[in-house]
Write a structure and sequence with these properties.
This protein has two helices and 17 strands. The chain is mainly beta. The strands form six sheets. The protein has a six-stranded antiparallel β-sheet with strand order 3-4-5-14-9-12, with no helix packed on it. The chain has a three-stranded antiparallel β-sheet with strand order 11-10-13, with no helix packed on it. A two-stranded antiparallel ribbon has the order 1-2. The protein binds 5-phospho-D-arabinohydroxamic acid (PAN) and zinc ion.
Length: about 200
């Protein structure tokens, strides 16, 4: 990899980087056991394995001191009453933070610490959200009208640990409450000491 400065442009309505190395697409089937209404999940999956979100990543060597960055586009929609969302993860190297800059759309970042503390921060055009080290994070598009478009950057050696979220989900679910979203307890979640 050539170690020279460079500039990218974020092009088009979805702010796709003018150059990227990795295009990740995540469909409904990748979020097995995550949506609380499992009947609605399987009904939806029987119709189509819909595209929920895409990540356009600019790759750098996965070394301390480097940064990985790019754009995540979460499409609008729901499974039952639960909005489309990312899988969510802890960083494998827990002591690594992350920054999100919301380019467009409406949503929330659901977070929780290893100890079970939780937070929900709102995304809106121009908002910057700081994810501290040791906090798992999941992005949710709470608008049914358009994409949620997020620029992100994090230490390149962070890695992703999806396992505990795949098993227990996040402590809080984000549901469609009609006029606004609702934050409700996830019945499947277990406190860390009971796992
Ligand atoms: C983001 C996420 C991205 C997709 O770049 O990886 O939004 O979410 P999942 O990785 O949970 O599918 C990030 O937080 N990177 O560390
Ligand atoms: Zn992350």
């Amino acid at each position: 990899m050539v170690n020279r400065p460079f500039t990218l442009q974020l092009l088009g309505p979805q702010a796709i980087p003018s150059r990227y190395d990795h295009h990740i697409t995540r469909h409904l089937s990748a979020l097995k056991n995550q949506f609380h209404d499992q009947d609605a999940y399987h009904d939806a999956l029987n119709v189509a394995d819909m595209l929920l979100y895409e990540v356009f990543e600019i790759r750098r060597p996965e070394l301390p001191g480097e940064l990985l960055f790019g754009v995540t586009v979460i499409h609008p929609g729901k499974v039952g009453d639960e909005f489309f969302m990312t899988k969510g993860h802890f960083h494998s190297v827990l002591e690594t933070a992350e920054l999100y800059y919301c380019l467009d759309g409406e949503g929330v970042l659901v977070m929780e610490s290893l100890e079970g503390d939780w937070a929900v921060e709102e995304f809106y055009s121009g908002s910057v959200t700081f994810v501290p080290p040791r906090w798992a994070h999941r992005s949710v598009n709470t608008s049914l009208d358009g994409d949620l478009i997020l620029f992100f950057a994090y230490p390149a050696h962070a890695g992703h640990d999806y396992k505990s979220i795949e098993e227990h989900g996040f402590r809080k679910l984000i549901l469609d409450g009609g006029d606004t979203y609702e934050i409700v307890d996830n019945p499947r979640w277990l406190p860390p000491e009971r796992r």
